[in-house]
Amino acid sequence: MSPHLNIGLVWLRRDLRCEDNAALDLARQQCKQVHCVFLFDRAILEPLPRTDRRVAFIRTALVEVDAHLRALASHADAGLIVLHGEATGELPALAQTLHADAVFCARDYEPAALARDRAVAQALHAMGRAFITTKDHVIYETREVLTQAGTPFTVFTPYWRAWLTRLTNEPPSQPASRLPVATLAPRPTPYIRPVPTLQEIGFTSCSTNPPAPLAGGTSAAQALLRDFVPRLAQYQQTRDFPSIKGPSYLSVHLRFGTISIRTLVRLALHEQAHGNAGALTWLQELAWRDFYFQILSNFPHVADNAFRSAYDAIEWDTGPQADQRFSAWAEGRTGYPLVDAAMLQLRESGYMHNRLRMVSASFLVKHLGLDWRRGERFFATHLNDFDLAANNGGWQWVSSSGCDAQPYFRIFNPVRQSEKFDSAGAFIRRYLPALRALSDKHIHAPWLAKPQVLHDAAVVLGRDYPLPIVDQTQARHRTLQRYAVVRQRPPLGPLQASSADACDSPDDRGDTTQ
What pLDDT was estimated at residue 215? Predict the structure, then answer.
């Protein structure tokens, strides 16, 4: 395609890389010269705590993008333009300053992002400049994979079959050829400056070194991928065990686009074709990610409400006791070791193993009787890889209010989950040192241990480790009573497929990003 625009401005957002970047490749094809910009958006940053691992991750990735752009260019003034402000004002102003004919960016699917983009597009159009978006963050978006009736899928298994069929027939295209150096435009003098420090945008560095999976940039993503490939054959057997190095740990890199989803899907297809036993399972997890994005796109009400509206009638516990229970859950003080270890992992590292996300979320909703939205917001604040679509989908899955959710009467037993997926207690001992001396048999439910066993392990319940804040049997009874208002499923909505009455089993629920 011959360039027909003079200058293009590529707005990097969830695609913090130079290779296999759809917006950058499209701008290269359509423009004679290209600028690249990243905006630290105050509307997004202001609500965040001043120490946030994700902001540090983004900054590290931007430093690498800036260096990559300068290395590709044939002149000294190339590089990334970095702004700090409100997108609706800063982007149109920059486009005008650069005399850009168009702003290019990858599409976003979150309601707030869509509203922002509409405002930016309107401002650009008023100036006679184009706003051009392209697909980058998913393999198939909004209505690219539909039922035979032409409606969005609301159950994963048939969606997965249709997704895989289309993928097999239309594998992801290879990335465009390397960006010609002449295409990269020199930055105007006021914008020739390094990526701002965290302090310059109002943040502080983390007091401790972030865990290895949080290292930012494409180079870090590629290193994780190289480490994962030899483990891929065992992925199906290892992915559910939090003390085993089973997942790829690429979720945060997919979230911020330091690696392309197409790169991972191409790899999975290649490995599957060569007999790798774990490749198809991993590919299915990547399809779960697409599934939740298309749910958010087609049913945007899920961002604030239950997918199945009847579930909004559930009366969740509120008041001082409910707040105390929420605090105990959030701080890892429930008295259920696997739940507490999971929450401490999240608070310490910003990461939580997917199996534990399901267990801890189910505990909050179906043991403590608290609104799933409270937990969703907590995860949104603390997860390095927070993505609205996947986070919302996961929480609605465990609360039984979402599409393809587990039945309301299916309640994760945290003790059985612990015995099955952390049988030797290795994960629990890592985050709950007070319980380290307990045997593998007793560490999953210390309150059931005989007094002599606790004495020998130097554990005093209520002092060294909390007693359970709820009884499992009583909690299950209250949950079944609470869900009585929705025991009859609501009628299907006009966009829902007839297969919505089916439900995948808990172990078929994908990890979506990990």
Answer: 79
Contact predicate 198/59, CB 8 Å: yes
Choosing from 163, 282, 288, 329, which is the catalytic residue?
288
Q: Mark out the alpha helices in 73-199 (DSSP H runs).
A: 87-98, 111-126, 156-169
And the tokens for 145? 């994979």
Active-site residue (options: 276, 354, 384, 392):
354
The token duo for 511 is 């990890």
Q: Is 316 a catalytic residue?
A: yes
Active-site position among 285, 298, 376, 392: 285
pLDDT tens digits along 281-331: 999 999 999 999 999 999 999 999 999 999 999 999 999 999 999 999 999
DSSP annotation of 414: H
Residue 372 annotated to the active site: yes
At 330, phi and psi to the nearest 5? -65, -30
Structure tokens, 178: 């390397």
**Structure tokens given for 450:** 């005989």
Structure tokens given for 269: 């297809």
Catalytic residue among 19, 305, 316, 447: 316
Task: State whether residue 365 is helix, strand or coil.
Answer: helix
Q: Which of 314, 343, 351 is nearest to 326 (CA)?
A: 343
Q: How far apart are CA 470 and CA 334, in angstroms?
A: 8
Active site residue: 160, 163, 372, 397, which one? 372
- Give φ, ψ of 64 to 5 degrees: -70, -40
Domains and CATH numbers, the chain: 1-137 (3.40.50.620), 138-173+218-298 (1.25.40.80), 303-489 (1.10.579.10)
455-462: Cβ within 8 A, 24+ apart: 459/434, 459/435, 461/335
Phi, psi (degrees; rounded to nearest 5) at 11 = -100, 105
Spatial contact of 58 and 200, defined as CB atoms under 8 Å apart:
no
pLDDT digits over 135-184, tens only? 999 999 999 999 999 999 999 999 999 999 999 999 988 776 566 656 89
User: In which region does residue 99 sit, left (phi positive, over 0), alpha (psi from -120 to 50) or beta (all else)?
Assistant: left
- Taking the C-alpha atoms of residue 507 and residue 219, their distance in angstroms, rounded to an integer, is 33
- Beta carbons within 10 angstroms of residue 88's beta carbon: 18
What 3 state SS string does 78-115 have?
CCCEEEEECHHHHHHHHHHHHCCCEEEEECCCCHHHHH
Residue segments in the chain with a per-residue pLDDT below the cut of 70: 1-2, 176-182, 206-214, 488-514
Q: Clarify whether 447 is annotated catalytic.
A: no
